[in-house]
Each structure stands twice: as C-alpha cells, then as structure tokens.
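Q: My labmate handed me this sequence with no annotations at all. I'd like to see what the chain might look like in three dimensions before we decide whether it's worth expressing. Could you predict it?
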Amino acid sequence: TPRQFDYLNTIEKSADSLLGIINEILDFSKIGAGKLVLDNIPFNLRDLLQDTLTILAPSAHDKGLELVSLVYRDTPLSLVGDPLRLKQILSNLISNAIKFTDRGEVQANLLLPVIAGHGVLPVELDVRDTGIGISPADQARLFNAFVQADGPRARQGAGLGLSIVRRVVELHRGSISLGDSPLGGLEVAMRLPRR
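A: Here is what I predict for the chain of 195 residues:
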C-alpha cells in the first residue's frame, strides 16, 4: 500500500544515513591511526565526475535543482590515484551543496590551473552552488571534526564529512579551501600523476 511504501522508504533512508555515519566514523578512525592507505591506479577523471553526478542527480532533481559540470578542455582525464577516495571527495562536496541549496544550481568544475609538463599535474575541483552560503562563524570551523553548521538541515550525519575530505585531499598532496567567488563554494587543488 502507499502507506507501507512510505514506511519502507523511511526505513531505507534511515539505514542509508546510519551506514553513512558508520563509514565516516571508520574512515576518521583509520585516518587518525595513520592506517588509511590510498590506491594508486589509473582512472578517468571525467568518468569519475559523471558517475558521481549520476548518483546524486535524483536528490538534486527532487529539489528542482540543476546539477551541472564543466570540465575544461585542457584538464587531463587519464590520471593515477585513488578513484574511490576521489569519488568520496566529490560525493561529499556535491551532496553538501545540494543539501544547502533550495533553488538554482550546483556546479562542479574540473580544470588544470596552469600549463604543466609530463608527470605530476595540478588539478583543481571547484564546487559552487546558489545556496544559503556559509556563515562567518561556520567558515572558521568548517573542516573541524564533529562540527556541523547550524540549522535543521545540518543535523544529518556525524559532522565528519568535510574533516575526512580535507584529510583525504591532503593525502593526495592537495589542499581544500572556501572559494572567494560570488557563488562561494569549496575549492580543491591536488597534484595527481598523469597515466
């Protein structure tokens, strides 16, 4: 019946949320113990971004948001790194943007910031949205563990997502920061070997 379907849907969402919290706690523990080891395998950056957007598209669609990506032409696509952890970074940043955006769009951009030679390349990921923004108080503690922004939408998860993202980015010899563009957003810069 429709009522049973609603119950099952609520159970599924609750189970997914709990699984997400458990995975965040496990990842945080591994990072704290120095046991998080990154894979070093070939992957296609465009495919990784598109796969992530495909998974997150239903939640954006449910809110009437446009979910777009822009991959600059000179961005290298065949790289070496840990695609599972990079997908974790993308998923966290984009799902946060969707969660805090009520109308408009969420945009994920990939670019090569400077012309580089062979070998290790700087790659930038930029996630922007037309959401509510981040208050100055929350900006100061954005990447701290067990910290969540104020408001009912923020009370989902353990408050570990961005802390884990920052550590995984750092393990990829990169950095993450709050953007200063008119749309704001989070910017990730990493150095990944070319395949």
